[in-house]
Design goal:
Layout: H1 10-18, H2 23-31, H3 37-43, H4 49-61, E1 65-69, E2 76-80, H5 82-85, H6 88-102, H7 113-123, E3 134-140, E4 149-154, E5 159-162, E6 172-176, H8 178-185, H9 191-196, E7 200-203, H10 206-216, H11 226-235
Length: 236
């Protein structure tokens, strides 16, 4: 936990708990439904395992989460307490504030395919899938080795993300610049515009290609109108 500010002010006391590096991002992952250590780590891929363990212990001591042993296997399950759940509106407000006021461009360094694919997987509109099982191969042509190839297997019950070929036939292939896909996901760039500029290429049966905007969805913090947002940015 960071050093005390030495103030009785509730803002200062809350900052002592929440402003340690990575804490808010771990909280974001817990609020998004991650309960296992490996799930949390996939949401903060640049965070070391040892530091994640440390932050989880600190959050437990602060009363933000509980840790329970898994039944019949190694590891623990992590769940937010009522105090942790109560921070949900704060985290959403921070994201919305950043979107509206910081308006930072997505840099190549920030366009991490590991986080992007994990976030996309949990927000797929599975009720709008064009078939019972949709297998999409994502290739990020500009990503570092180990983050270029991803397989998304989406079914009515859930969507799974694979690092290696799951052995199913591929229905669609999406070849993209990581930054372009992140911009689409954040509602800053229309998928159609990204495809026309060749920053994103989608190949497969025509009906499945047309279905992508319907089931892909957007980030929790996306702009609602990508075309209007893109026009605003281009006008500056």
């Amino acid at each position: 936990m960071p050093e005390s500010y030495g103030q009785f002010c509730p803002v200062a006391q809350a900052a002592e708990v929440l402003t340690e590096r990575w804490t808010l991002l771990v909280l974001r992952e817990l609020l998004m439904g991650s309960t296992r250590f490996n799930e949390l780590q996939r949401g903060v891929p640049r965070m070391s395992s040892s530091l994640l363990s440390k932050r989880l212990r600190e959050m437990e001591r602060s009363g933000l989460l509980t840790r329970e042993p898994l039944q019949g296997e190694r590891g623990h399950t992590y769940r937010l307490t009522p105090a942790g759940e109560a921070l949900g509106p704060l985290v959403v407000s921070l994201g919305n504030w950043s979107r509206e006021w910081l308006k930072r461009e997505v840099s190549e360094k920030e366009a991490d395919p590991a986080l992007l694919m994990w976030d996309m997987r949990r927000s797929i509109r599975i009720d709008r899938l064009p078939k019972d099982q949709l297998v999409v191969f994502f290739r990020y042509r500009d990503a570092e080795e180990g983050k270029r190839a991803w397989w998304l297997v989406a079914e009515p019950a859930e969507a799974e993300l694979c690092f290696t070929d799951p052995g199913f036939g591929i229905d669609l292939q999406i070849d993209a610049e990581a930054r372009a896909m992140a911009e689409v996901w954040l509602g800053r760039l229309e998928l159609g515009a990204a495809m026309r500029s060749k920053r994103i290429r989608v190949s497969g049966p025509e009906d499945l290609v047309r279905s992508v905007p319907d089931w892909l969805g957007y980030s929790t913090f996306a702009y609602e109108d990508p075309a209007a947002e893109m026009a605003t940015r281009q006008a500056k």
